[in-house]
Every structure is written in structure tokens, then in C-alpha cells.
Task: structure prediction
Amino acid sequence: MSISNKPESKLGESIIAPDGYRGVIVLSCVALGMLLFGRYYLTGLHLFLASFVAFFFRNPKRVIPDIPGAVVSPADGKVVVIKQVQMDGIDEPYTQVSIFLSIFNVHINRSPIAGSVEALTYTPGKFKAAFVD
Result:
């Protein structure tokens, strides 16, 4: 699997990430149904929820500097960990950078550098607070 020579500046042309459309459409249709049945309180609630889903899955355009070798942030948020780690199956240590995304950050991850993927490993996690290392 390889990545393009330049980091991606956006995912598609949409202002909402593809995963968010289903939620926005379903909640908007439910709001319309509530409006037709005269349930104005529930209409407002569902429109608020649809707006929140659209806000959560927003996909703003990012301008990537056209500088050879540039490394850009892969996500919005706060850097909580930068450390050298060793992983089974990889001979040399690598740098781990962990970024905490609050509910108000854009939840889109982009390619921070140009390159190719050499290894892919899934490590099951535990249910802990996202800001805990």
C-alpha cells in the first residue's frame, strides 16, 4: 500500500466526512416527520442533533504548504505524548505522537507526510479516558 507523494489537504470535496451523512440525513428525516405530526419540540431536538452530527463530522479544507519534506499535523487537537517506542516485529524504535481530539476538534485524520506504508499492526485497546497515555 502506498501513499501519494504529497500529504492530502482534504478528504474528497465534501464539507462533511462521508461517515456523517447517514446521521445527518436520518435525523433530518425524523425532524421532518415530527414537523408533519406537529411535534415541534421533537422537531427542534432532532434538528439540533442533526446540526451537531454535521458539526462533529465537518471536513474543512486544509492548505498544505508546498515544501518538500514538510511534516504537517495529521489531526486537530492537543499533542499529549511524544516518545520513542519499540514495537514487536520492527527492528528500530520509532517516534510515537499521540493527539487527543476533544468533541470540538475536527475528527478527520490526514496523511502528515508523503511516503509509503511498510507495516500495519492492530493493537486492541482498553476502555480508558482518551487523554490517558
Summary: The longest strand covers residues 78-85. The chain has two helices and two strands. Residues 18-36 form the longest helix (19 residues). The beta strands are 78-85, 94-100.
